[in-house]
Amino acid sequence: MKKFLFKISFYIIGILAVMLFLGTYADGNTDDNYRHFAVEKPQNIILGDSRSVQGVVPEVLKEKLSVPFDNFSLNIVQSPYGQIYLKALKRKLDPETQNGTFILAVSPWNLALNNIVKRTEDFPEENSPFKNMYFYNMSPNYEYLLKNFDKSWFRIYLDREAVGRSNTYLHKDGWMEVNINMSKDSVAARTAIKTEYYKLLLGNFSLSKERLKALNEMIDYLKPKGKIYLVRIPVSENIIALENKKFPEFSRMMQNLSKEKNIKFYDFSGHANDFTYIDGNHMYKESGKVFTAQIADSVKADQRKLK
User: Fold this and answer.
1) Across the chain, what does the average pLDDT equal?
2) Quick one: the chain helix, strand, coil %, rounded to 5?
């Protein structure tokens, strides 16, 4: 038995050594979320869902506001506003933050919940990596890879950035750069599919008291640490029409919240035709840069007033 244990220990050590080696190659190609857990804790942060992870570009904010930003948005399933996202924010943000700038992207969808969900344990973000992660600033982050990477670890090496960036590449600052066929027919086809998807959701979702409560708590947590800006990101005309039909009160609700909390709300939802979208719901990367510059200009103008 001792000989067997001695021999198998070498096997186990060998496996661990290979995993440790492969983990060092984890990067923006590994998956759509890894890098959110493998960078230094930020003091200026972007929160939201897939609209903001693609549409708000930290590098543009850095250029115009002269401070680095981290985009801590995932997607509508994994990072809607709620207690899990709030807990993740508290682990992510640099605890020494005092003069931060916080951009919170709001939409009816990241503050809504499927009507069939009655218990908090059934919220979709219960399956988010935010639920099971403790460490948010380790590189390599073996905790993330062990808990949330569901492919062979050899894929980490085979799909590494040095071989070529993936079509959904996650930058170190949290921005997801999407490279996709932008021909007119391809965009039209994706937009039609996305529009039908949202039409199917309309009857099943309502604004959630729990999500609105969590957003309020998030604002209260961030307010002593810096300036907060709520932003409604534009989408294509057909999708914003669906949103406004289902949630006609949403922008007014956000405006009232901003007044109550003494923060700013920038509503860009009326500017659908100013931008290009990959599917009607997410901005094309070049439009995202233009849009982010507009956010930065608004923030800059607000900060000038405070001086």
Assistant:
1) 94
2) 55, 10, 35
Q: Cα 36 vs. chain centroid, distance in angstroms? A: 9
- Residue 164: pLDDT over 90: yes
Distances (CA, A) of 24 to 19, 28, 154: 9, 12, 11
Is the pTM higher than 0.85? The answer reads yes
Q: Rg for the chain (alpha carbons), in Å?
A: 21
Q: What's the average model confidence in pLDDT over 265-282?
A: 97
Return the structure tokens found at 82: 């709620």
Tell me how far apart the alpha carbons of residues 187 and 183 are, in angstroms, rounded to a whole number: 6
CA distances from 204 to 81, 113, 238 (A): 18, 8, 19
* Higher pLDDT among residues 10 and 222, named by residue: 222
- Type of residue at 52: S
Cβ 206 vs Cβ 115: under 8 Å: yes
